């Protein structure tokens, strides 16, 4: 019987756990044994007793390493060197962001599977799409955090003391996180406008009932569905258009990313300087807003709060862990159709996520050294 081990994440801001008790129970139903590091779910309010009630065993970290065939995590563990040879490690390993990690894992003869490399457009991979599930949580939290930091109401409120105007919210980048931020800000009653460089995303913005901001550039969709970087002159025209639009908004949420390139600068200091005191700018991509720093709230000279928030999914640990655990169970079910792990490099999903195996890096993008 295959044993799946669940590791505690490194202490710090990370509060998620890779497998919830409910998901552990689902694996048990598939005749997979689950061992969980004691306290692994604690920061997401999943107690050791909940895992035991679901049929999992709660053990020490060393025992998880010693007994598991497959190890589940979110981030690569700090003690990668402690992983016994031949184990399978599954997580959001970001091997393209840290090429040395893949080399270390291959040298340790670990089979590494990274969910952030999943081919997202394959319909049978959608239940495993952890980037989407976590971006969805981050977009939701972004709207809440921006509403909390903003000194006014998001909705229009009619009271005996008068009527308040609704907040004007602009969301730059309407992928998974941006669309959820738009939907959540609208649910809170704000007047929301969205913007993206992909034409398809503009239709998504409109379908949520938000207004669409248009800037002077061609559709920048790539054949893989992701955005392509703007040419220098287009980026300049984009920044000028955004700079003209931004001052009328109370809240700006930015989520724009381009695979393999730095996050584009969309809100330069000059645009911040023209915003009203009390406005809020929240940068999920940390790079879209000039001067934003990760996990930091700063106040500009003219009273604009700038928040850099790269890991918001980690701050909604119950929802984010639940979604991630479902993605992990879907992947494990795919890898272990009969309860036994079977690697098949010809399978499109597996070829997409397999980083290294048998002492070698095998992923085509890593081998080419491209992002
Ligand atoms: P992402 O996190 O890479 O980027 C976020 C958004 O930023 C994207 O919408 C992108 O177009 C936008 N962006 C990039 N440069 C910009 C710029 N200069 N100005 C403004 N916006 C800019 O993207 P994501 O949210 O992970 O996914 C993006 C798209 O990928 C989805 O909307 C979809 O088309 C595709 N996708 C498909 C599936 C699927 O087929 N199941 C699943 C997930 C994502």
Automatic annotation (TrEMBL):
This is proton-translocating NAD(P)(+) transhydrogenase. InterPro entries: Ala_DH/PNT_CS2, AlaDH/PNT_N, AlaDH/PNT_NAD(H)-bd, NAD(P)-bd_dom_sf. It comes from the Bacteria. It catalyses: NAD(+) + NADPH + H(+)(in) = NADH + NADP(+) + H(+)(out). The transhydrogenation between NADH and NADP is coupled to respiration and ATP hydrolysis and functions as a proton pump across the membrane. Belongs to the AlaDH/PNT family. Residues 147-308 form the Alanine dehydrogenase/pyridine nucleotide transhydrogenase NAD(H)-binding domain. Residues 5-138 form the Alanine dehydrogenase/pyridine nucleotide transhydrogenase N-terminal domain. It is an enzyme of class 7 (translocase). Keywords: NAD, NADP, Nucleotide-binding, Translocase. Transmembrane segments: none annotated. It holds the Pfam family AlaDh_PNT_C. It comes from Paractinoplanes deccanensis. The keyword Nucleotide-binding applies. The keyword Zinc-finger does not apply. Its EC number is 7.1.1.1. SMART domains: AlaDh_PNT_C, AlaDh_PNT_N.
């Amino acid at each position: 019987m295959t044993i799946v081990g669940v590791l505690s994440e490194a202490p710090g801001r990370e509060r998620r756990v890779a497998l919830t008790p409910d998901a552990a129970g689902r694996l048990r139903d598939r005749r997979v044994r689950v061992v969980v590091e004691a306290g692994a779910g604690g920061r997401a309010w999943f107690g050791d007793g909940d895992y035991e009630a679901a049929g999992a065993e709660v053990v020490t970290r060393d025992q998880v390493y010693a007994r598991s065939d497959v190890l589940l995590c979110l981030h690569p563990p700090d003690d990668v060197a402690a992983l016994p040879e031949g184990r399978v490690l599954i997580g959001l390993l970001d091997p393209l962001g840290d090429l040395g990690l893949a080399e270390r894992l291959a040298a340790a003869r670990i089979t590494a599977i990274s969910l952030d490399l999943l081919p997202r457009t394959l319909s049978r991979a959608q239940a495993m799409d952890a980037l989407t599930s976590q971006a969805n949580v981050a977009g939701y939290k972004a709207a809440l955090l921006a509403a909390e930091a903003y000194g006014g109401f998001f909705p229009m409120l009619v009271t005996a003391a008068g009527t308040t105007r609704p907040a004007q919210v602009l969301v730059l980048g309407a992928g998974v996180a941006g669309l959820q931020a738009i939907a959540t800000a609208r649910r809170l009653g704000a007047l929301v406008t969205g913007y993206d460089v992909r034409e398809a995303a503009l239709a998504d913005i409109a379908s949520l009932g938000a207004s669409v901001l248009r800037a002077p550039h061609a559709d920048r969709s790539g054949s893989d569905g992701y955005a392509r970087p703007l040419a220098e002159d287009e980026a300049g025209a984009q920044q000028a258009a955004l700079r003209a639009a931004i001052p009328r908004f109370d809240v700006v949420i930015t989520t724009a990313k381009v695979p393999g390139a730095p996050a584009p600068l969309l809100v330069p200091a000059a645009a911040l300087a023209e915003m009203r005191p009390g406005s809020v700018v929240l940068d999920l991509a940390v790079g879209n807003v000039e001067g934003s720093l990760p996990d930091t709230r700063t106040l500009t000279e003219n009273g604009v709060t700038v928040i850099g928030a790269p890991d918001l999914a980690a701050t909604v640990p119950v929802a984010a862990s639940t979604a991630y655990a479902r993605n992990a169970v879907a992947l494990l079910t795919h890898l272990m159709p009969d309860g036994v792990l079977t690697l098949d490099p010809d399978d499109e999903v597996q070829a997409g996520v397999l980083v290294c195996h048998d002492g070698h890096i095998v992923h085509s993008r890593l081998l080419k050294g491209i992002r």
